[in-house]
Every structure is written in C-alpha cells, then in structure tokens.
Task: inverse folding
C-alpha cells in the first residue's frame, strides 16, 4: 500500500462543507466517490482542514492509501475526470506511510474577502461578504496586529466546540485593500491569517471582529480584552462563510 497526498481546490458554494455527512453533498464525499470509481478500491480520505459549508479552498490537503499501480503524479489528472467541475485536484504525490495531514505541524493560511460597496455586486455574492459602508482599513490593521502571537483564543471560538485547549499561534494577520474599477466603485478588503491551527469558526470570528473595528463599532482594545478574558461577547460576530478561502497549508518539516 502507498499513501498519496492530494492538493485540492474547490468552490464550496453548493457543498455542505468538507466532511461527509447525511444531509447533503460534501467535498470529502465527492473525492471518496471519485477515487473509488477510478481505483476500484474501498478508499478512505483523510483531510487536513474540515472547511464549513460555503467555504472555498485553493489548497486543502488530503491523503488516502492505495494499492494502485498508477504513478502518483498521474492520479490528479485521472481523478479530475471523475470529479465535478467545482472540485479539482491540483497535485498528487506519494508521501511517507505515516504522514497524517492533521497530526503534522503545519501553517495554514486563510483569506477573508469583504466587498465594501454601496450596492452589492451579484456575481461576487458567493465569494465575498458585502458591507455597505466604507471601512477604516488602518484601524483594522492596528487591531489585527494584536491577534498575532500565541494566545488563548477562547473568545474567537464558536460556542459548543469540544476542544478544551484553545491556545493557538497566529504568525500573521494582514489587511489589504484594492479599489474596484467596475460596478459602482468601492473596495475589496482582504484579511489574511496564517497560523498553526484554528478553532471552530475562528477565522470567521476574527474577520467579523475586524469588520466591526473598520465600521467604528469596536476599538482595537476590544481585541485585547477578548484575549485576556476569553469572553465570546467581547469579540465580533461570525462573518458569513462565502468570503472565506483556504489558500494553502505548509507542513513545517517541508518548508
């Protein structure tokens, strides 16, 4: 048996997230179906990041074990013929038999995109969160810097999470902007977060908090107090899923 690693990109709009479930189609479910069709084996897929319903990815990672004789680098192209158009395997490669994408030290990078515009742009509705007012990007950047480092992120985790240890390391939080030259004007504001792991809805809560700062509803000091107290009410709302993209995962022993 060989262990194969896949780098997977997908548009999460019509999926109920990554993980297989009974109430709808999922990314993991489609990958499992396609692999079983291609390889004629009882394949089990293990994913690195269990993205939520509506969340997108450019570089999620998954592994599976197989006895196939297909060269590892050829599996991606063959597999894509069995997948819907909104899921594409970007790369396939053989890894060590004990490689597990959720147990290896890694750095994950997410990006949340906000469209600050007076009137929504319909073609972007599945990929951005529309905010109908200007955002103070400098204040968002000031607040974002307070999130960097190793902290207890209890205030930035959705209630009901079974995880007890909520300490995580955030390497960088950046806020960028670019003007839109079409539609009715406005700007795209992107919040990019890199770290060694994330709690349930953590990136979306970070984005929601920074949006509130940009709107003037919260100050940067709210973030300090949220980190100190662990009080979920001190952080902002959970931003909608469609603005979130998993850009990629770097495994620390390979950097």
Result:
């Amino acid at each position: 048996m060989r262990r194969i690693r896949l780098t997977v990109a997908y548009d999460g709009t019509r999926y109920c997230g990554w993980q297989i479930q009974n109430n709808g189609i999922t990314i993991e479910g489609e990958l499992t179906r396609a692999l079983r069709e291609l390889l004629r084996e009882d394949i089990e897929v293990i994913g690195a990041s269990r993205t939520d319903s509506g969340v997108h990815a450019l570089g999620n990672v998954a592994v599976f074990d197989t006895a196939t004789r297909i060269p590892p680098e050829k599996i991606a192209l063959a597999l894509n013929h069995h997948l819907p158009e909104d899921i594409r395997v970007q790369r396939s490669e053989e890894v060590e038999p004990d490689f597990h994408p959720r147990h290896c030290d890694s750095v994950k990078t997410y990006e949340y995109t906000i469209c600050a515009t007076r009137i929504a742009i319909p073609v972007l509705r599945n990929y951005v969160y529309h905010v109908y007012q200007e955002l103070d990007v400098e204040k968002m950047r000031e607040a974002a810097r307070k999130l960097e480092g190793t902290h207890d992120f209890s205030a930035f985790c959705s209630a009901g999470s079974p995880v007890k240890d909520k300490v995580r390391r955030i390497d960088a939080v950046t806020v960028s902007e670019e003007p839109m030259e079409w539609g009715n004007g406005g700007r795209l504001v992107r919040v990019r977060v890199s770290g060694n792991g994330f709690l349930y809805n953590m990136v979306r809560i970070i984005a929601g908090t920074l949006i509130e700062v940009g709107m003037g509803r919260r100050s940067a000091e709210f973030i300090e107090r949220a980190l100190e107290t662990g009080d979920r009410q001190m952080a902002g709302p959970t931003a909608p899923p469609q603005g979130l993209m998993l850009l990629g995962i770097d495994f620390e022993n390979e950097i």
